[in-house]
Amino acid sequence: MHKGSCLCGTVTFQLSGALAPPSVCHCRMCRKMSGHAWASTHVPQSALELSGQDSLIWYRASVNARRGFCGVCGSFLFWQHEEEDRISIAMGAFDTPTGVQLARHIFVDDKGDYYDLEDGLPQQG
């Protein structure tokens, strides 16, 4: 069982089962929403149990995807493509050890110029 929440604890979640190896997204939108790069794992939508949904606000980031954040503290928690039945969850929102390791970097062509990627993980443009 994996549990997590936003910073203020208003929006909480739990899920069972294995987590997919997380990716770090360096796209412009993730950098703007998170303040840096955004690391996330993903699970089937049906595996996610949410509490505090009344405070969860969905922002339509593009025609294909939405981003979920707490309307109280502003924590950026979720990303979901509308044509997929899975949901991405911010690695920083988990309360307990996850047992996973970063697997790759994506949208590295958009990364900020103030940092380097030297961890040896695969990188996708």
Automatic annotation (TrEMBL):
Xref: InterPro entries: CENP-V/GFA (IPR006913), Mss4-like_sf (IPR011057)
GO molecular function: carbon-sulfur lyase activity; metal ion binding
Keywords (A to Z) from UniProt: Lyase, Metal-binding, Zinc
Domain CENP-V/GFA: 2-116
Family affiliation: Belongs to the Gfa family.
Name of the protein: Aldehyde-activating protein
Source organism (scientific name): Pseudooceanicola lipolyticus
